[in-house]
Fold Corrinoid adenosyltransferase.
Amino acid sequence: MKIYTKTGDKGTTALFGGTRVPKHHIRIESYGTVDELNSHIGLVRDQDTGEHSRKVLSRIQDRLFTIGSTLATDPEKQKLKNGKERLNIPKISAEDIEMLEKEIDKMNEDLPPMTHFVLPGGHQSVSFCHIARCVCRRAERLATALHEIEAFDDKVLQYLNRLSDYLFVLARMLSKKLEAEEVKWIPEKS
């Protein structure tokens, strides 16, 4: 299989279903940002997060491929002529969202309550989590904008929303595990 096709040389790309759109289209921005997020999650997974977190992060990466596929499908071509779904993969489910919520709750049990905003940093692994969280928020913003134009399964938006929360709590959990200082943001007085 050739990696380069030259079909995008004039600034367009094909969605699942064959529709060609400009590479700057909101749909491309949306799933491209999800792909960027997936790469950052891989970087987080490569850190010393512990075996359980690595498994959860691998599952998240799988779900992000599902989200990317969903976002990369032309809504008018979601169904094949025979009536079957173009994407023959499991969709984002309520269980996927609940898994993130359970992981958040489980990590939060062992963390001190938050009394202030926390400045990102303290350890490289923690910083990688915060970068992934910010990219996740951007993916969510872009997906929300796309959803207003061409609706898709609401669970995709819910998953991205919960995932950014998960990444924030994972950053806090790693701070504790790695004995990194969690720096509270206390606004300077004028």
About this structure: The beta strands are 12-14, 20-22.
